[in-house]
Design goal:
alpha/beta, Rossmann fold, 2 domains, 7-stranded parallel β-sheet, 5-stranded mixed β-sheet, 16 helices
Length: about 350
Amino acid sequence: MSIVLLGSTGSIGVNTLIIAQRYNIAIEALVAGRNIDLLNEQIKVHNPKVVAIAKEEDKHKVNHNNIRCGTEGILSVIEESQSQTIVNALVGYAGLAPTLKATSLGKSVALANKESLVVAGEFIDMSLITPIDSEHFGLWYLMNERPVSKLFITASGGAFREWELNKMKDATFSDALKHPNWSMGNKITIDSATMTNKLFELLEAKWLFNTSNIDAVIEKKSIIHALAEFKDGSTTAHFAGVDMKLPIAFALRGEVTEEILPPTDLLSIGALEFLPIETSRYPIWNIKEHILQNPHLGVVVNAANEVAIEAFQQEKCSFFAMSEMVLDAYEKFNTIRATNIDEIIKIDREVRDYASKR
């Protein structure tokens, strides 16, 4: 077996390479952004046939003789690859085109790029998608073809879950990156603080499991990732350590029967607490029910959110103003509905243009 790995230098990419080594999975291609030093280390270890990077200007730094650049370069790598599995761990909207390219070729996608489904789930063949996400992996693990009445995923609450509300309005970009439970990339950590990440995961679950009967609650220790409420009235929970190697191993292998993570130590966990996601702290949650009934509007939320994060990083808006920008765009564009991918691209552009002028 061989894979193409998109986003090799991020945390999902690094963990994917660990799992690939463990199971002797060949790496046909590596795709990375601008962390060329780490990419060069990965090239030395995994010896890919081809490499793609984000920027042409970094090409001379890469220690490989077959290098592609930019979006077209990434798409050409997927198109020419022999691998039937593409691991997509790219960040943001940039991950959509590779997902569409891979699925159009009938290739399976182990998907960590949640924006692909948020933006265009309606136009993606779900039979080719396996999520690399602890929440969706947990849901799949629990459901096991039993009749389910409701699904739940959990949220950590993000960097500001303990902050006083009146202090949050003055929070900085660096404050928002101080996640209480783990270290992730900038975008997902900001999205965790606003709860946008969890909204996206609900939309993912909507497409993956074909249900709108799904909700989220805060579980501060991030030990329970998902719960399934069955029609018989019972509920089961999926406990696992905060480590993405487990869903990655299942995505690449289909089934895993040996230990990937140490078993959960219940005594060291002690008490568990579940808390509601309150709109006063997480304003984006105001649209949760509406967007689950209208998941085609995910393209609006994603586009406005990416503009808002950039504005926050550049100190052009406050923490709460990010959610205000997204909610404003959501109201402005709430009657649109794409009928194909070209219209998705057009709507994305229009929303970004609108949000950037607010």
